[in-house]
C-alpha cells in the first residue's frame, strides 16, 4: 500500500470548452501540490475530479496503481476533502459537527479527541456554541479541525486559507508541511503564497482552446 | 488564540486505511440523528407544513359549503390532497441547506454508499413531516364530518403513503437542489408522480367510509412504498451526483 | 452491436448516415399518412354506434401511441447516454421531448373533441384522457428541467434521470388511473375500448400508426442533425461543412 | 367509399365540426412541426456560415498585419 495518485492525459470539457487537456499527474507521498491558474481555469474542477466527485472527464485516474474505478472505496477511505464551503452546520455546535464527521469517517466516537482537535485549531472555549454564532474564520477552523480529528494521508483542500487570520494561516501552513513530512500528501488551491520548500510542487492550468479534433 | 495551535507531533507517521469495513450503520444513524437535531432546533420548519395543512382544510368548507353531507363526500380526497401539498412544501429544503454549506459534498465523499445516507435524510423528512401529518389528519377529519370508523384508515394510509411521497419527492428535490429557483419546478416534476399514491390513499379512506375492504388498498400502498424504497434511493443518489456537478 | 455503439460516439458518422436515412423515412411517412387519411376519412365504414365521429380514431390513437412511445424512447436514450456516454443519444432525447408533448396534446385535443358527440361534453375524466393529461405534465416536467440548468451537461444528465424515473412510473400511473376510473364510472364506456373491429376499420388505423412512427423517426433524425450543428459548432468538420454548403 | 357525394363527405353525417377540428389540428400541428424543424436548420446553417466567414476574415487580416510588421509572436489561430 503506497500513497500514489496518478492521472493520465486527463481532460475535462465543460459545455464545449476544454478546461484542461492532456494533463499528466503523478502525486506521491511527501508532496504538497499547489494547483495554480487564473479564475475559471478549472482549479476547483480538477480538485473535484481528483477527489472522485466528478465523473465526466476523459483520461484515466489511478490510486495506488489501480484504476480509480476499482480502488474507489479504498481511495475514499484515505481521502480528506475540503471544498469552498466549509461544510459546517450553523445550527450545530462545533462539537456536534465533528461528531457527524467522525461517524462518516467510520471512526469510533471519542469525545476527548474532538475536544483535542478543536483545541488544536484554536477553538477552545467555543465547543458548545452554535457554529452560526462564530465568525467566518472560526467556522473555517471548525472544518480545519477535521485535519486533526480524522487522520487521512491524502488531503485535497480547495482554498483552505479563506477567511483565516494571519496566525491561523501560518499555523495551517505549518500543518500542511508537517503532514507532507510525515509521509502524507496535500493537494491544494490557494491565492495565498505558500513558503517555498522542497516538498512544494506547482501545477499550472492555463486556458482551453478551440477544438480541432472530431 | 491559544499557544498550542498547530503543534503536531512530528514522529507519528501517516496511517493508511484498508477497505472500509462496517461503519455504514454508524454513518446512517449519525446522519439521521444530525438531521433530526437540526430540524428540531428550527421547530418552525417542522410546524409550517402542519399549519399549512390545517389552513387549507379550513379553506374548503368556507369556499364550497359547510354542508356536512357534501363535506363527507369530498373529505377523503381533500385530506389527502392537502396533506400531499403540505408534504411537498418542505421538500425543497431537504437537500438545499446541505448543498449550500458544503456538507452535501462531504456526504458524497464518504466511502459509504450515498443511496443509504440519502435514505437517512428522507427518513427524517418523513418522520418530521409525513408522520405528523398522518397523526394530525384525523383531527381535521372531524372538522370535515368524516364518518366514524375511517379515522384509523386515514392515519394509516397517510403514514404509509407519505413515506412513498417523501421518497419520490426526494428525487425531484435532488434534481433541483443546484438550481436557484427550483421550488416551483420541483412541484411540476413531482406532482404527476404522486398520482398513484393519491389514488390508492384516498381510495382506502373512501373504501373505509363505504365499508368495503380496506386491506387491498393498504397492500397496494405498501407495495408502492416497497418499490419506492428499492428504486428511489438509487435515483436520489444519481441525481445528487448530477446536482453537485453544477 | 459494439461496433455500432462505438460508431454512434461520432456525431460526424451519425450526421452522414442520418442524411442518407432521412429521405426514406420522410417519404414513407408522407405516403403512409396520405393513404391512411384517405382510407380512414373516406373509405372506412362508419361506426354503427358513433357514426362518422369515429373517424377521429385515426388521429387520436396514433398520437396516443406515439406520445407513450416517445417517452419510452427518451428514457432509453437517457440510459444509453448515461451508461455509454453517447452524446447523440442525449441530443435525440432533447429533440424528442417537444414532439412527444405535441403528440400528447393532439391525443388530448382529439379525445376532447371526440367526447362532444360521444358523451355530450368537452371533457370527461376518462381513463385514457386522464393518463394522457398526466403524461403531458411529465413531458412538461422533463422539458422544464432541461431548460432550468445553465450547464448543458448537467441538464442532459438530469433530464435523463427524470425520463427514466418517469418511464418506471408510466405503467404504474396507467394502471392506477384505469383502476380509479372503473371504480368511479363502472357503467360508461371508453371511446376506443372495443376489441372487435372489422378489417376495413383497423387497416387504415394500422397504416396511420406506422405513418406517425415514420414521421417521428424522420423528424427526430432531422432535428438531431440540427442539434449536432448547434452543439458541435466548434468542431473542425462542422466548420468545413458550413464552408462547403455556402 | 362510405359516402355518396362530396357534400356528404364534408358533412360527416352531422359530425363535421368534431371530425374536421380533430383532423385539422393534428394536420396543422404536424405541418408546423416540420416547418419549425426546417427553419431551425436553415437558421443554424446560416449562423454557422456567418461565423466561419468572420473567422476567415479575421485570420486573413491578422495574416496581413503580421506580414507588414514582420511580427511572429501574434495571437494567431492556426485553424
Automatic annotation (TrEMBL), chain A:
<keyword id="KW-1278">Translocase</keyword>
<keyword id="KW-0547">Nucleotide-binding</keyword>
<keyword id="KW-0201">Cytochrome c-type biogenesis</keyword>
<keyword id="KW-0813">Transport</keyword>
<dbReference type="InterPro" id="IPR003593">
    <property type="entry name" value="AAA+_ATPase"/>
</dbReference>
<dbReference type="InterPro" id="IPR005895">
    <property type="entry name" value="ABC_transptr_haem_export_CcmA"/>
</dbReference>
<dbReference type="InterPro" id="IPR017871">
    <property type="entry name" value="ABC_transporter-like_CS"/>
</dbReference>
<dbReference type="GO" id="GO:0022857">
    <property type="term" value="F:transmembrane transporter activity"/>
</dbReference>
<dbReference type="GO" id="GO:0005524">
    <property type="term" value="F:ATP binding"/>
</dbReference>
<keyword id="KW-0067">ATP-binding</keyword>
<feature type="domain" description="ABC transporter">
    <location>
        <begin position="3"/>
        <end position="210"/>
    </location>
</feature>
<dbReference type="GO" id="GO:0017004">
    <property type="term" value="P:cytochrome complex assembly"/>
</dbReference>
From TrEMBL, chain B:
<feature type="transmembrane region" description="Helical">
    <location>
        <begin position="148"/>
        <end position="177"/>
    </location>
</feature>
<keyword id="KW-0472">Membrane</keyword>
<dbReference type="GO" id="GO:0005886">
    <property type="term" value="C:plasma membrane"/>
</dbReference>
<comment type="similarity">
    <text>Belongs to the CcmB/CycW/HelB family.</text>
</comment>
<feature type="transmembrane region" description="Helical">
    <location>
        <begin position="70"/>
        <end position="95"/>
    </location>
</feature>
<feature type="transmembrane region" description="Helical">
    <location>
        <begin position="184"/>
        <end position="209"/>
    </location>
</feature>
<keyword id="KW-0997">Cell inner membrane</keyword>
<keyword id="KW-0812">Transmembrane</keyword>
<dbReference type="GO" id="GO:0017004">
    <property type="term" value="P:cytochrome complex assembly"/>
</dbReference>
<protein>
    <recommendedName>
        <fullName>Heme exporter protein B</fullName>
    </recommendedName>
</protein>
<dbReference type="InterPro" id="IPR003544">
    <property type="entry name" value="Cyt_c_biogenesis_CcmB"/>
</dbReference>
<dbReference type="Pfam" id="PF03379">
    <property type="entry name" value="CcmB"/>
</dbReference>
TrEMBL record, chain C:
<feature type="transmembrane region" description="Helical">
    <location>
        <begin position="56"/>
        <end position="84"/>
    </location>
</feature>
<keyword id="KW-0997">Cell inner membrane</keyword>
<dbReference type="Pfam" id="PF01578">
    <property type="entry name" value="Cytochrom_C_asm"/>
</dbReference>
<keyword id="KW-0201">Cytochrome c-type biogenesis</keyword>
<dbReference type="GO" id="GO:0017004">
    <property type="term" value="P:cytochrome complex assembly"/>
</dbReference>
<dbReference type="InterPro" id="IPR045062">
    <property type="entry name" value="Cyt_c_biogenesis_CcsA/CcmC"/>
</dbReference>
<feature type="transmembrane region" description="Helical">
    <location>
        <begin position="201"/>
        <end position="221"/>
    </location>
</feature>
<dbReference type="InterPro" id="IPR003557">
    <property type="entry name" value="Cyt_c_biogenesis_CcmC"/>
</dbReference>
<keyword id="KW-0472">Membrane</keyword>
<dbReference type="GO" id="GO:0005886">
    <property type="term" value="C:plasma membrane"/>
</dbReference>
<protein>
    <recommendedName>
        <fullName>Heme exporter protein C</fullName>
    </recommendedName>
</protein>
<feature type="transmembrane region" description="Helical">
    <location>
        <begin position="96"/>
        <end position="117"/>
    </location>
</feature>
UniProtKB/TrEMBL annotation, chain D:
<protein>
    <recommendedName>
        <fullName>Heme exporter protein D</fullName>
    </recommendedName>
</protein>
<dbReference type="Pfam" id="PF04995">
    <property type="entry name" value="CcmD"/>
</dbReference>
<dbReference type="GO" id="GO:0015886">
    <property type="term" value="P:heme transport"/>
</dbReference>
<dbReference type="GO" id="GO:1903607">
    <property type="term" value="P:cytochrome c biosynthetic process"/>
</dbReference>
<comment type="function">
    <text>Required for the export of heme to the periplasm for the biogenesis of c-type cytochromes.</text>
</comment>
<dbReference type="GO" id="GO:0005886">
    <property type="term" value="C:plasma membrane"/>
</dbReference>
<keyword id="KW-0997">Cell inner membrane</keyword>
<keyword id="KW-0813">Transport</keyword>
<keyword id="KW-0201">Cytochrome c-type biogenesis</keyword>
<keyword id="KW-0812">Transmembrane</keyword>
<keyword id="KW-1133">Transmembrane helix</keyword>
<dbReference type="InterPro" id="IPR052075">
    <property type="entry name" value="Heme_exporter_D"/>
</dbReference>
